[in-house]
Structure formats: C-alpha cells, structure tokens
Amino acid sequence: MGRRSCYRRWRWRWRLPVAASLGAALLLLCIALRSLRPALENKSLGSSWFGGVRKSPLQMLHDLDQAPRSAMAELHHQRREQLRRACSRHTRRQRLLQPEDLRHVLVDDAHRMLYCYVPKVACTNWKRVLLALRGRGDPSAIPAHEAHAPGLLPSLADFAPSEVNRRLRDYLAFLFVREPFERLASAYRNKLVQPHSAAFQRRYGTRIVRRLRPHAQPDALARGHDVRFAEFLAYLLDPRTRRHEPFNEHWERAHALCHPCLVRYDVVGKFETLEEDAAFLLDLVGEPGLRFPAPPRRKKKDPTHDQARRLFQDISPFYQRRLYDLYKMDFLLFNYSAPSYLRLR
Predict the structure, then answer these.
(1) Can you tell me the mean pLDDT for 228-257?
(2) d(Cα 199, Cα 293) in Å, to the nearest integer?
(3) How large is the greatest C-alpha to C-alpha distance in the chain, in angstroms?
(4) For residue 106, what are the β-bridge partners?
(5) Distance CA 194, CA 71 (A)
C-alpha cells in the first residue's frame, strides 16, 4: 500500500512539469496566432485564405463591410441599404418565395455564389464568367449559344426547399441592373429590329403587327420584321399581353425576374459601372486574375442613352407616363431617376 502511494506521488510530480510546459507552449501559440490574424485578414482581396480554409465570397464581403470601408465597399454597402429602404417603403406586404421566383437565379456551388441574370444587362458575359469559373477556359472564347445552353448552369429553382434555404443563407447573391428605358430600347433593337433576330420577329413581331397595325401588309404579317417602337410599347401596355402569357424575359421588369424584396442580394451591380463592379465581384470570389469580357467599345456619348432618347421623342406624354408607371418599381428599387427626355407632366 505504501509503495503504491509512493508511485502515485512520483507519477504526479512527473506530470505537473510536463503539463505546465505544454500549457505554456499552447499559450505562446495562441498569442502568436492572435498577432498574425490581423495581418492575414488585412491582406488584399485576392488573398482569401486563412488557416488553410478559403473564405467564401460572403465572408470576404462581410470583412470588407467593417469600417473603415474602401470606396467600392462603401458604394455597394449604400446600394444594399438603398434597396432595403426602397423595399420597405414600396412593398406593402411580403409573401413566401415560390420555385418560379428562382428560375433566373443561377447557382455556383464551388464558389458559393448565386447570380440572378437580367437579359440585356451583360448576362451573356456573366454566364461566360460562371462557366469559366467551372473550368471552361477563357470566358471571352465561350460562344454565346453555349453560355445560354439549358442545364449548363443550374437554377436555384431546381433544388429542394431545404437546399434552397441553405444557399440563400450561406452564399453571396448578386444581380446586375440597368436604367429601365435604356434596357427596353436595347431589347427592342436587338430582338425586333436586327436581322439576326428572325425567330424573335416571327414569334413576337407578327403578333404585334397582327394586333396593332391596321391594314398590315402580308409580308409584315408573315415575318414581323418591321415592328415600330410605338407598336412595341403599345403591345407592352395592352392588357391582353399579360393575360395571354408573362412578359418575355428581355423586357420583363428586373424586380419581377429577381425579386429583390424577397431575396437578399449582397451585391447590386449596375450596367453603367459594369467594369468596376465586375472587378469588385471577381476579387470577392478570389479570382482577380479572371478578366470579365470587355464590353463593346463605347463612343464619347453613351449610344444606348442616345438611342433611348431618339426612340422616345416621338412617343406621346400620355404613353410615356403609362410606360414609366409600368417600370416604376425598377426605377425606385435600383435608384434610377426618370430620364430627362421624358415629358411626364
């Protein structure tokens, strides 16, 4: 019994110095890591690794959102706040998200991102970028038809509700918007005027001519190739249009495609600042070396603004007001002013 007691005392005498040494070593390690962490977290956006784990874009944005913010982080913080206030002010009641609300939200699980695409707002190039992030090579080399191919980029609507909720909670969600009437003018010119849009003209142009042009010529009824802008606007304002089917996505309102008052968007990019906003996002993803496809070379004056101004100058103030009311929520939610060329009074 005495020997056993003596053995126990010896064993504890041996353990105490070892435990004290281990405790001191752990304490020193914690202090070292604590001192290193600010240096690691304050590196440039391109460095998104800490402790061997890559930060998600949402975590990167959260880090940037802490004061003091950079100019770009402050800009996007203000856009989020403006959108939140506008939703609170102009949305009377909230409803639950439905699967059809998420058809335009594309999922990138590898980079933990959600992108709601709005046609005529560089969505082809954003789809190219998402494919490039999945290993498809240079985004500029990806053909447009491949970027739009069904099934290549999964939609959030295709997931089970629990998976939808998890992604909405944990992923960075972004969208890009554009001044509504410039987007509308671009959609008209691209889909109803350009010769390469024969399929669009046959589907929508012939419908517009048949409904709104008295004594239309047989060629126009068959091809729908010469729709006037005033006819296009009258088609949008005609109650029968929405009764028969939803607006085509190229002229549907951005808020009706992406539901920004139901889905939390962390980054609201704008067509007018496309290059800067794209670079900001790619930094968040940790791919600053990936180049967003260059937009077409612009003239000194923005051609889309001039095109919209010329198209609307022959539209009566009555129809200008009605069209503005149709797209009013996009103006309000995304902080666009009514164009100066409109005669709304």
Answers:
(1) 96
(2) 27
(3) 119
(4) 115, 155
(5) 40
Does the pLDDT value for residue 230 go beyond 90?
yes
Strands 49-50 and 53-54: antiparallel
Distance CA 252, CA 329 (A): 12
Q: Which amino acid is at 280?
A: F
The gap from C-alpha 7 to its chain's centroid, in whole angstroms, comes to 70
Q: What is the pLDDT of residue 11?
A: 41
Residue 27 contacts by C-beta under 8 Å, 6 or more apart in sequence? none
- Side chain identity, residue 234: A
Residue 61 burial class via C-beta count within 10 angstroms: exposed 0-12, middle 13-18, buried 19 and up: buried
Which band of pLDDT confidence, cut at 50, 70 and 90, is reported for residue 116?
very high
Sheet strand arrangement including 113-116: 105-108, 113-116, 172-177, 267-270
Q: CB of 333 within 8 A of CB of 255?
A: yes
Q: Residue 116: beta bridge partners?
A: 105, 175
| Alpha carbons 103 and 93: distance in angstroms, whole number | 22
Which tokens is 302 given? 């923005």
User: What does the angle CA 107 – CA 109 – CA 110 come to, to the nearest 5 degrees?
Assistant: 130
What pLDDT sits at residue 52?
Answer: 52
DSSP-H helix ranges across 141-215: 144-147, 161-170, 180-188, 198-200, 206-212
* Segment (H or E) for 187: helix 180-188
Q: Which residues pair with 267 in a beta bridge?
A: 174
**pTM value?**
0.83
